[in-house]
Specification:
This protein is an alpha+beta fold and about 190 residues long. The protein is about 50% helix and about 15% strand. The two termini are about 30 Å apart.
């Protein structure tokens, strides 16, 4: 079982490294670095329907082995060449930034839960993966609710409420914010 677990961890790490885009194509989430319209590099589709912008964000996972305990680094990235906009208003940009912030919120939740498992010396890869996948799934669900409740940012009052709520939750999980530059140099 431990050999199979180790092989799974190596496969996950290999996948994460291969899927890691070049630094020009992604932006790591940072409190000090907000999105701007120059970050949206994809050509606007001819038939985008009602959508005026699309932000492609992703929670990336890097798997490591720390002795007998699995270790995962969780990153939130904005994929520049998969993101586009045909409306360059500040309100639309704020809506798209909040999608990125929601991704970071769930990355922090995952980091917190993963650390709790590590402190218990839990060596079950399945336990770690359950946390990762459940946070990614919940993030997707929350983003869908966010778009529905704000009508993709059209409803200003709801947009402001979501912005406030996510900012509060990010502050509450401040201890689980990471400096991505530490990991980029490894």
């Amino acid at each position: 079982m431990r050999v199979a677990t180790f092989i799974l961890l190596l496969a996950l790490q290999s996948l994460a490294v291969r899927c890691q885009p070049s630094s020009d194509s992604i932006i790591y989430w940072s409190q000090s670095r907000k999105l701007n319209w120059a970050d949206f590099k994809k050509k606007t589709p001819d038939s985008s329907g009602y959508q005026v912008a699309v932000s492609s964000t992703q929670i990336l996972i890097h798997a490591y082995w720390d002795g007998r305990i699995p270790d995962y680094k969780v990153f939130t990235v904005f994929k520049r060449y998969d993101s586009w906009s045909k409306d360059t208003s500040r309100s639309v940009l704020a809506h798209e930034q909040l999608h990125f912030d929601i991704g970071e919120l769930f990355a922090r939740r995952a980091r917190k839960a993963l650390l709790k498992l590590q402190k218990k010396n839990d060596d079950s890869v399945d336990d770690y993966l359950q946390i990762i996948y459940s946070n990614i799934h919940e993030c997707d669900s929350v983003e869908a609710v966010y778009d529905a409740e704000t009508a993709h940012g059209v409803y200003r009052r709801e947009q402001e409420e979501w912005s406030r709520k996510i900012a509060v939750e990010l502050r509450e999980l401040k201890d689980f914010e990471v400096d991505y530059t530490e990991y980029l140099s490894e």
